[in-house]
Amino acid sequence: MTYVVTDNCIRCKYMDCVEVCPVDCFHELEAMLVIDPEACIDCGVCEPECPVEAIQRDGEDALGPWIAFAAEQAAHAPVITRKGEPPADAAKWEGRPGKFALVFGRSL
């Protein structure tokens, strides 16, 4: 099992989750964070820290594409261990549907 960062993180990227992770499994992309599914120990401390509820626990088939995306991206993105500044327009993006396709130009 692993935890997964989903669509709600895109362009919000609040990063409250990063500092509580005991195994440094978060990786930073330009538009969002991802959790390395190989490094995640399924402790769950990150999930309640996300103010936009972008982190979900694996266990649903619908999260499979997100896990594959995270694994692919984590292999190339830097590990992040400290909370940074969210984008200036983060509030504008909160709850907006279809962000993945808008930002990445493809669907999962």
UniProtKB/TrEMBL annotation:
InterPro entries: 4Fe4S_Fe-S-bd (IPR017896), 4Fe4S_Fe_S_CS (IPR017900), 7Fe_ferredoxin (IPR000813), Fd_C (IPR022569), FdxA (IPR054829), RnfB_subfamily (IPR050294). GO terms for molecular function: 3 iron, 4 sulfur cluster binding; 4 iron, 4 sulfur cluster binding; electron transfer activity; metal ion binding. Pfam families: DUF3470, Fer4. Its cofactor is [4Fe-4S] cluster; [3Fe-4S] cluster. Keywords: 3Fe-4S, 4Fe-4S, Electron transport, Iron, Iron-sulfur, Metal-binding, Repeat, Transport. Ferredoxins are iron-sulfur proteins that transfer electrons in a wide variety of metabolic reactions. This is Ferredoxin. It comes from Marilutibacter aestuarii. The lineage of its organism: Bacteria, Pseudomonadati, Pseudomonadota, Gammaproteobacteria, Lysobacterales.
